[in-house]
Amino acid sequence: RKEVEQDPGPFNVPEGATVAFNCTYSNSASQSFFWYRQDCRKEPKLLMSVYSSGNEDGRFTAQLNRASQYISLLIRDSKLSDSATYLCVVNKGGFGNEKLTFGTGTRLTIIP
Amino acid sequence: DTEVTQTPKHLVMGMTNKKSLKCEQHMGHRAMYWYKQKAKKPPELMFVYSYEKLSINESVPSRFSPECPNSSLLNLHLHALQPEDSALYLCASSQANLLAGGSYEQYFGPGTRLTVT
After folding, report:
1. Which residues on chain A place their C-beta less than 8 Å from a C-beta of chain B?
2. Residue B42 to residue A46, Cβ atoms within 8 A
């Protein structure tokens, strides 16, 4: 089983729609969770960290379910500029253990 | 300002060449990272430096040699590479993790697109 699993998509969604991505992780000792977005031929950019209480940043909402080892990202009122690959990222944390494990990414295309 | 810079943006090198990739950050971060990313794949960790000391080497071949001259700079020295080493090489930085539990967000540079001929 992969350490971090995501649906690779592609997701083709009309502008203005709501889209949800899911991600599962296998290591129950994981302590930090992130969503990054990566545009074609660019570097990954941090979208948001994911907390147990859930967190929201504008149109983006992230949720973490530790019991099910499941992370989600919801994008509301999607814009053309949201087209990108979304990477689910997990870290076991702990002293000296800065290794991020990336999911394979979910490709999103917003259609005008 | 969350900015990590990398030079060069593009690099083409022959299999017998020696070249270096450079990375710089001025965010006061004490952990720095090298990743390799092939097309349509996620980044793969190569090396981690924490407080200028190498803390993780993900069994990377010795033709890749990292160096951390100071807390702001990270280099990757390349020698006798193979065509399959062609990829996007990403540098990242973060606060260093001193406590058990949790970790800090990593910020990536724009990468160096390397082609080995």
Report:
1. 31-32, 34, 41-46, 49, 87, 91, 93-100, 102-105
2. no
List the structure tokens of B6. Answer: 């990398």
End-to-end Cα spacing for chain A: 37
Q: What is the token pair recorded at B51?
A: 């407080």
Contacts of B56 in chain A (CB under 8 A): 98-99
CA distance A86 to chain B (A): 10
Instruction: Using the predicted structure, report yes or no on whether residue B72 has a pLDDT greater than 90.
Output: yes
Instruction: List pLDDT tens digits, range A7-32.
Output: 888 999 999 999 999 999 998 888 88
Nearest CB to B101 within list A42, A93, A98: A93
Annotate B32-99 with DSSP letters as a single string: EEEEEE-TTS--EEEEEEETTEEEEE-S--TTEEEEEEETTEEEEEEES--GGG-EEEEEEEE----S
- Residue A82: helix, strand or coil by DSSP? helix
Structure tokens that stand for A108 in this block? 């999103």
B106/A46 CB distance under 8 A: yes
What is the four-CA torsion angle of B36, B38, B39, B42, rounded to 10 degrees? -60
pLDDT in tens, A23-77: 999 988 888 899 999 999 999 999 999 988 889 999 999 999 999 999 999 999 9
Q: Find, among A52, A112, A44, the residue nearest to A78 by Cα.
A: A112
Residue with tokens 């295309």: A109
